[in-house]
Amino acid sequence: MLNASLKKEAPQTGGDRQDLLPKTPAHQAVYARMRDAILFGDLAPGQPITIQGLTTMLNAGMTPVREAIRKLTAEGALEMQGNRRASVPVLDLHTLEQLEFMRLNLEPELAFRATAHIDSADIDRLTQIDDSLNDAIDAGDVSGYLRLNHAFHITLYAVAQAPILAQSADALWLRFGPSLRVVCGRFGTSNLPDKHAELLDALKHGNADAARAATAEDILQGVIQVRAALSEESATR
User: Fold this and answer.
1) Cα separation of 1 and 9, whole Å?
2) pTM of this prediction?
3) Res 12: pLDDT
4) Taking a C-beta distance cutoff of 8 angstroms, is the pair 173, 39 a contact?
């Protein structure tokens, strides 16, 4: 069953100024909501998704849903199963090894580059995100942790002024994120990876090498936990 968080919010009424604001095209809105549902694990790996089911849950037309599925399939976030069904790919160890290689070669470089451009406002914003992330961890809020962890990294990478690299990193997160949700479901939030304190300290002191190292350690901790979950699942089959 599709997650209820995908349902379209009821339109606001009573504010005539709202009607004057530009509206996001339907296909873009549907794509963004489906992408977030995949990225943050609301659609579980292996869960079958039907076009008709999505049109009902999203209160959207068939055309924007089909277009969103097409784009997400091209990005590797969905795979077609036939009979108008798709699913989030189930991560295996071979794919994890490739994602690990790509992330470790890309994201630490973005943190390294960001160090040269970051200012106090950026650091304050990252600190606020990380404080909220720590609150989510303490509260056992898996959904909050996943969204805030992604926001922390994407906010930092945007500072690097390397948009091609940043877009590539976000695409890798789309492939990795659903399995991190599975890890959280298995082990909770108490031992989730977080080297953000070390990373923030490096950024404050303008230490690009330390920022690169902290980012690499943060990625490795997450990969280790996902690998452990995949190995445990494989052993129980």
Assistant:
1) 19
2) 0.83
3) 45
4) yes
